[in-house]
Amino acid sequence: MTLLVAQLTFIALWVPLAGVLSVILLLKYCARHGAVPVGVGIVVGLVWFMSMLVPVLLPLDVAEMTTERCKSEASGGEDVNCAPTRADPEFLALAWHVGYWFCFSMSWLVLPILSSYVLAGAFSVKKRFFFALRDRLIFFLVIGVLFGIATVLLVLRFQLSLQGLSGILVSLANVFGVFVSTLMLSYGLIEVPKWLWKSGDYEAKLQSSAIRATYTMERMEEAKSSMALALGNINAVMSLYDKSKKDMPARKRKTIKKFIRLVQAEVPNPDSGLTLPKAIQDEALHCALTEDYLAGLRFKVKKRVIEFRKVNYLWKKRCVEAFELQDLLQWRTGDFQANSWVGSAFLTIRAYVLPVFSRIAAVTTALLTMAIIWSEATLWTISLPSSLDLSPFSYFMHRLHPPYTVVMLFCFACVLYLYFCLFFGIFRFRLFMLYELVPKHTDPFTLVLNGILCSRLLIPVAYNFITIMHETTYSISILYEGAATSMAMTRIATLHKGMDKVPVFGVSFNLYFPAVIVLFVLLTLCRVWDKIMNMFDLTKYSFEGVGDERLETFGKQLLSQERNKWMNQRHPEEDARINRYMSPSRPSEEDPISDSEFGGRQNSNYSYEVGSDAEREEELPHSFEVQNEMNSPSLRSRQNEPTELEAFGEEAPPEGTQDIADASRKSKKKRKKKTKKNPATNSDDEFEF
Question: What is the pLDDT of residues 109-153, one digit of tens each?
């Protein structure tokens, strides 16, 4: 392999840059407090690293293919000007093979086992690993048996050789990727241009922020109730241990004590600035204190703590976004003044320049969306007897013959846009919040699921882009009939060449199924999915940011009250936001800030503030009154859906114990007193919290 310019740039520049970006993303999104094991971070980082190479490797592959075809035409006697070869074909083939089979093995073998491993609550690595194998063993056996049966049938019926097994694996993985990506792209391709257009309309953006604030507050209430039950379970375990420790053997008592300490270590420190809800628990814990029970409790506590931290972060983020939009609108009317010329320039650019660019980007992406949808819907026409090629991307490649650099930039922009639309749809679908990446609050299970998502979808989407350009082996054999064997092909198309021998799930699926995107696009434009979910009170399966006027009004009330609270209490987030570029007049308690920007004066008896336990108990009845008055489908759906507590097979017991933080402090004081009275005594029976 010769070392050429583009190849050297890819190795020396983009590969290290992809590695640095992967590390930065891990440091940004991984949950703190040691919640993410080092091994999980390394594996997910490698998957992200390989995924980041695809958007650069594909344009380089297509550009080199055009150069090879140009040279073959020149050798045939045609007078053409060809760009020099900038990457070795052997290097590109090796890169695609290594990247594809690495992602394949990770997405279908390693990461599924790792996802079960991080869900295990066992106290040793060995037990977690065996739990993961046992949890995934049935899955792998079923998949293996089905794959074996399918392979035997295909070999017997269609005379497939054993060398075509890789083609079967590639085709099945491609079917999954194309199916999921088509569903999500149908939403993203429509909503991304609309989102860019609305980004310049700050009034509409403020309305969307209010709806998202409503969803976040509902999620916070669920996280509070789950966290309260988790704390109550720990209190119940402590109480049961105190009652039964005298009957335990000394060795078992020490073991149980150690495990309870590990469970309790998952609870945030009261000095961490996170206000914990008041614990609720059963009057008695009707189970034995075993390692398996404590392992399950540890997993539940860890999961609920991460969710509790996450929604608190998201609520502050939603508030800051809405407050900045409100301040920007008020700055336009002169109610705010910038504290410096830098702040004034920043606000001017954001208020008047960025909306223009967002509208230009919206129009550009809308045109690209129409081209993609048209190409996907007309892929099948090439299989007609007349071999109709209606794809504008194919016209660009086969008729215009663009230069090397233009091909690279065009493919890079299109692939990035497809990836952005794909993940835009996935992260907006509230059912897929399992994949949600929240800075400094993303748990290991979510990181692993995100790695599975990247490794399973990115290469199928890249191959789908090759398909709409009609650069697959099947399309080239039709477009260049008689010369297809001598035509240069992209290395990704050669990698998927084995699919041509697979019936139904090979060529036919890639040609005909993408046309379904037209139906999904029409459903997205008519909001059919969200209307159905609202009809059956299943809004948790709708897309985020979609709601009605009642949700918007409810969100405006929440944001207005939260802003009054921040301004009156000098919240650090509010001070940091104001000091960045604004100098407004801070209202006094007697003259609170007007909430006219958020839809009028809210109900003074209602508050969703995260306050003390006593304040929360007083506000709870009012919150139910407001929810009944609002009669919002999103809020009413919560009464019919099973809560997280019911999903775990638990019932919320009556309130009757102290907060775990109070219990911890009292226990420490008692232990100190006993130590002062008898310094030499240090019995294992004393359990310190």
Answer: 899 999 888 887 777 888 888 888 888 888 788 878 877 777 777
Two tokens, residue 247: 């009957």
Question: Taking a C-beta distance cutoff of 8 angstroms, is the pair 341, 305 a contact?
Answer: no
d(CA 520, CA 189): 11
Cβ–Cβ under 8 Å, residues 333 and 342: no
Q: d(Cα 570, Cα 39) in Å, to the nearest integer?
A: 41
Query: Measured between alpha carbons, how far is residue 278 from residues 306, 365, 652 in Å?
Result: 17, 49, 13
Helix 572-581, helix 291-332: angle, nearest 10:
40
Contact indicator for 260, 237 with CB cutoff of 8 Å = yes
Is 90 exceeded by the pLDDT of residue 303? no
> How far does the chain reach from its first CA to its final CA, in angstroms?
64
Residues 212, 546 contacting (CB under 8 angstroms): no
Residue with tokens 């309130």: 655
Higher-pLDDT residue of 420 and 583 is: 420
Q: Does this model's pTM top 0.85?
A: no
Helices in 159-201 by DSSP H: which ranges? 165-199
Q: Angle formed by the axes of helices 549-569 and 572-581, to 10°? A: 90
The H or E element that residue 634 is part of is: helix 633-640
Mean pLDDT of 466-485: 83
Q: What is the pLDDT of residues 423-461, one digit of tens each?
A: 888 887 766 566 778 888 888 888 998 899 889 999 999
Residue 585's pLDDT band, with cuts at 50, 70 and 90, is: very low
The CA distance from 619 to 623, in Å, is 6
Q: How far apart are CA 289 and CA 661, in angstroms?
A: 22
Residue type, 552: E
Q: One-letter amino acid identity for 325?
A: L
3-state secondary structure of 543: strand
Closest to 199 in 3D by CA, of 350, 64, 98? 350
The token pair that represents 90 in the structure block: 């052997």
Contact status, residue 563 vs residue 323, Cβ threshold 8 Å: yes
Distance of CA 649 to the CA centre of its chain: 27
